[in-house]
Amino acid sequence: MKPTCPSCHQEIPVEDVDLDTGLGRCRFCNEIFEIPELVEHIQKIQVKDTKEPKSPPVRPADTRIRLVRKEDKLLIYLPPWGLRGPTIALFLFSLFWLGFIAFWTAGALGIFFQPGKAPRWENIIFSLFSIPFWLIGFGMLGGAFSGMLSRRIVYLDSSWLESRWECLFVKFRKQISREDVQMARVASPPVFRSTTNDQPNPTFGIEIIYQGGKISVPCESEAEQDWLLAEVNHFLETVPYRPNYLTEGAADEAIKDLSVEGS
User: Fold this and answer.
1) Using 50, 70 and 90 to split pLDDT, how confident is the model at 254?
2) Rounded to whole angstroms, how far apart are CA atoms 73 and 261?
3) Is 2 inside any structural domain?
4) Which of 194, 189, 254 is nearest to 216 (CA)?
5) Looking at the 3D structure of the chain, how many domains does it have?
6) pLDDT bucket at 17, cuts 50 / 70 / 90
7) How many Cα neighbours within 13 Å face the side chain of 210?
8) Same structural domain, 140 and 171
9) CB 153 within 8 A of CB 145
10) What does the buried/exposed string (b/e) look like for 175-197 if buried means 16 or more CB atoms within 10 Å of the residue's CB?
11) Alpha carbons 165 and 87: distance in angstroms, whole number
12) Is the pTM of this model over 0.70?
């Protein structure tokens, strides 16, 4: 069936029909009109395209993040950095910093100039100015050890969102009801960032938003960030909230089982 112009009733050649919009133009009277059958067909195709799920980003080959999903449970595991470039550099610099501060403090106390004698009160007061620098040094040293030895676990199921941080004998744990979990998004950049050539260094990561706060998961690249973001949001969309699905002990067992399965 060839379309006809609603004004002059002339047949419209195929070359005068726009197949992308469903509009036709009459070359006899310059009337522009919609072709109902073609418009309906285009709308059906558009609805079908929006309903088809997009394929999730592929897991980057170089990622150190281990993600395991089993039915209605999801585990994100960030292993310790170990002896890698950034942690080694921070560790060595913190040792240099603390060594320099120790040398300065000893000089301020007069140990080099009055060997064998107790420091005078004015030397002690002067040496107290080094306290903030001691704190900075120990903070950097703690950060280096934290990067080398700490591990991070984020666990999701139908009832709970749980975040764990462990470093040697120090452990922090936060548990949130899945009812309060809203979505995952790209992490907001920090307020203060180092710059190179007047351009801010990129930072990557995701944030799992819940009512009253967020849980951040750092990433090393944009590809890793996009992959993790798609996986978490897909889990939240496909696994509905179920109250009291797992007890606290059962959650521990699930994390253990998923950790072994993903190793």
Assistant:
1) low
2) 12
3) no
4) 189
5) 3
6) confident
7) 19
8) no
9) no
10) ebebeebeebeebeeeeeeeeee
11) 18
12) no
